[in-house]
Amino acid sequence: MPLLLIVLLFGVMYFMMIRPQQKRRREAQQMQSALGPGDDIVTIGGLHATVVSVDDDVITVEISPGVNVRFARPAIARVVSSASDVVPEPADDEPETVEETPIESPVVETRKSKD
After folding, report:
1. For bias kind Acidic residues, which ranges apply (predicted)?
2. Cβ atoms within 10 Å of 83's Cβ, excluding its own
3. Which DSSP category does 95 fall into?
4. Distance (Å, rounded) from C-alpha 60 to C-alpha 52?
5. Residue 62 confidence (pLDDT)
6. Which residues in 7-109 belong to E strands, given as ranges?
7. Domains along the chain?
């Protein structure tokens, strides 16, 4: 009976801890292998950048116009937006009009004056 309980505890531990970790690792590898130029990413250090080029294990990102930095592929934490996800918005020919409405009740000063 005690042996069965130990085996059962190891089984529960496997399904509660090890399997979700393997799933997260697999998803991270898929995300890193799908990176391409134009993707907006966040590194494990919190740096926001745009992917410029992808080599085997090195990804070159642009952190500011003209400033390129090279990172190891595992240093990419997540993709914020993919270059294929960005849909350009159609340009409007008419400028947006702003409607102005008058204030109906004036502002009342609530501050006490020092006497």
Report:
1. 90-102
2. 14
3. P
4. 6
5. 95
6. 40-43, 48-54, 58-64, 67-72, 76-81
7. 2-81 (2.30.30)
- What's the rounded mean pLDDT across residues 69-77? 92
Nearest to 31 by CA among 93, 78, 91: 78
Rounded Cα–Cα distance for residues 32 and 55 (Å): 12
Look at residues 62, 44, 45, 64 and name the one whose alpha carbon lies nearest to residue 53.
Answer: 62
In 27-66, where do the E strands start and end?
A: 40-43, 48-54, 58-64
At 24 the three-state DSSP class reads helix
User: pLDDT value at position 105?
Assistant: 77
The residue behind tokens 């009009």 is 97
Residue that is written with structure tokens 């006497």 in the block: 115
- Those residues whose C-beta lies under 8 Å from the C-beta of residue 16, and which sit 6 or more positions away, are none
